[in-house]
Amino acid sequence: MKLKNTLLITFLLLSSVVDADSYVYVTDMVPIPMRSDNSIQNNPSNLIKMLDSGTQLKILATENGWTKVKFENTVGWMISRYLTSNTPARVQLERLRRSSNNNQLSLSKQNERNIALEDYILELKKKNTALSIQVGKLESEKKHIRSTYQDSLKLEHENKNLRTQTLQLTAELQLLQNNSTIDQDSSSRNWFIVGALVLFFGFIMGFVFPKRTNNNRRF
Q1: In what order do the strands lie in the sheet with 23-26?
Q2: 150-163, pLDDT tens digit by residue?
Q3: Cβ(77)–Cβ(66) below 8 Å
Q4: CB of 48 within 8 A of CB of 36?
Q5: Tell me, what DSSP letter sits at residue 167?
Q6: Of 118, 119, 121, 117, which is closest to residue 129 (Cα–Cα)?
Q7: How far is Cα 199 from Cα 196, in angstroms, rounded to an integer?
Q8: How many Å apart are CA 59 and CA 64, to the nearest integer?
Q9: pLDDT in tens, 3-23
Q10: For residues 112-123, b (16+ Cβ closer than 10 Å) or e, as one string?
Q11: Could you tell me which residues come within 8 angstroms of residue 41 by beta carbon, excluding any fewer than 6 positions away?
Q12: Exposed, middle or buried by CB within 10 Å (0-12, 13-18, 19+), for 175?
């Protein structure tokens, strides 16, 4: 640390004018005074304000071991050996604290997103389970409908066979009825003919035999 401060002081002494964009910090010590002149005056005092360790200052100029700096809207002189180009531990600690807070905030947000994602995944799993159950029911209904359809086809085929058999039986019955009617008509006709013949022969015999009897009586 001392070596770095020595090098900084040497650089400041060699340069009377520095880049306006250069910055230094108040070292990690007690608060350091900012004065209106590059000298220590007590009566009257040229003290402007006390700056805490880690305060960032804009370099305006250097002269005789003093550095002209700007803090916010205030311009003054400070002893160069109390300034450093290295970021003080206090500033680093504050940066680390802010970074840690930001990381914790990011982690908290990430945890919230993770919880939301877990809830979303759980909801998707529930929906997936419900869909799986519904698909199972649909598959079962599909099998039942297919089985019912196949049974319907079988019944329709059986009905066709039964209708064909019924038509065949009806045709055979009609044929039998027709044959029976023909047989009955033929039998009736035959009996009619037989009866007519009997009557005819009876009439002939009745006509012939009485004549023969009368002739016998005459003799």
Answers
A1: 47-51, 32-35, 74-79, 66-71, 56-63, 23-26, 83-84
A2: 888 888 888 888 88
A3: yes
A4: yes
A5: H
A6: 121
A7: 5
A8: 15
A9: 455 545 544 444 434 444 588
A10: eeeeeeeeeeee
A11: 35
A12: exposed
